[in-house]
Design goal:
Elements lengths: L1 H9 L3 H11 L2 E6 L24 H4 L2 H6 L1 H18 L4 H5 L10 H10 L4 E6 L5 H5 L4 E3 L2 E8 L5 E3 L1 H12 L17 E5 L10 H11 L2 E5 L22 E6 L10 E4 L2 H15 L4
Parallel strand pairs: 1-2, 1-7, 2-3, 7-8, 8-9
Antiparallel strand pairs: 4-5, 4-6
Helix pairs in contact: 2-11, 7-11
Length: 287
């Protein structure tokens, strides 16, 4: 009997088990990394051929360097915007006309937002700075590394949307993108800095504690698109294991995190997550 029971456990479908766990959970924390935004045109910075193979993050993403040479950071951002524009099917001629394609939420972001519509208390904890979870409709989002959807003047301290910086970047791209550009404050002329966390800066006040509290309060943590290698954020999802009956579900394109997961889902998040939501709807009798 024990052998037969063991074989039955081995035959269990990880997708179905994950969906059952999510369907039962009242509170869920979704922890996301770069992988979820790849289908929105934003390549993983750390992947082969990614941004950091062209721009050394110890120079271009360091806070002390930014204070002395903000042009280094903005040079990298200009390259990134152009790269995203081209990945999304834009043409060089568009840039010359001052038009630039920007990333939009994909099916993975939208699926996470839809979990809340199934009566779940969902908190999104993200390592990403792209703001796509909020654009997709997720209302409770903890951005561990800040966001590039707003910026602050280093001189007067005024906070803006990204629009002034984006306008100046578009102008630079229209001129060929060869001349160094450092977006400036429209009020005082000071240097603008996106509200993201550069190396050498502390995480946003309270972000880690809020994320840990969310995980501890959740019966399911769904990890999407991250290898869980970036400290200290990588320590957060596994805390769910200390909760009685807590489940850690990991979804990645490769097998990163498979050994840590209670249930592991391999594939593209924009393919798998909508299917998860669909199955949870079926289990709850909502479809």
């Amino acid at each position: 009997m024990g052998i037969r029971a063991s074989r039955r456990r081995e035959r269990k479908d990880p997708f179905e088990e994950a969906c059952q766990a999510i369907a039962k959970a009242k509170r869920i924390t979704v922890f996301t990394g770069a992988g979820i935004s790849v289908d929105s045109g934003i390549a993983d910075f750390r992947s082969p051929g990614g941004l950091w193979t062209k721009f050394n993050p110890a120079i271009y993403c360091d806070y002390e360097v930014f204070l002395q040479r903000p042009d280094k950071f903005w040079e990298m951002v200009l390259h990134l915007y152009k790269d995203i524009h081209l990945k999304l099917g834009g043409a060089e001629s568009d840039l010359e006309a001052g038009n630039i394609r920007q990333p939009q939420p994909n099916a993975g972001h939208k699926a996470i937002s839809n979990l809340a519509k199934l009566g779940k208390n969902v908190t999104v904890v993200t390592q990403n700075i792209d703001g796509l979870h909020k654009q997709a409709g997720s209302s409770n989002v903890i951005e561990l590394h800040g966001t590039d959807s707003s910026c602050t003047c280093c001189s007067c301290g005024r906070t803006f949307t990204r629009d002034p910086a984006l306008r100046q970047l578009k102008e630079a791209l229209a001129d060929g993108g060869q001349v160094p550009v450092v977006p400036k404050c429209d009020d005082c002329g000071g240097v603008l800095k996106p509200n993201i966390i550069l190396f050498g800066e502390p995480l946003p006040t309270g972000a880690m504690m809020k994320a840990l509290k969310s995980v501890i309060a959740s019966s399911v943590v769904l990890v999407v698109g991250t290898s869980l290698e970036v400290a200290p954020a990588n320590m957060i999802p596994g805390v769910v294991k200390y909760r009685p009956f807590g489940k850690l579900i990991i979804q990645n394109l490769d097998n990163s995190g498979k050994e840590q997961a209670d249930h592991f889902l391999q594939g593209r998040s924009s393919d798998i997550l909508p299917e998860v939501v669909k199955r949870v709807e079926e289990i709850k009798g909502l479809s």
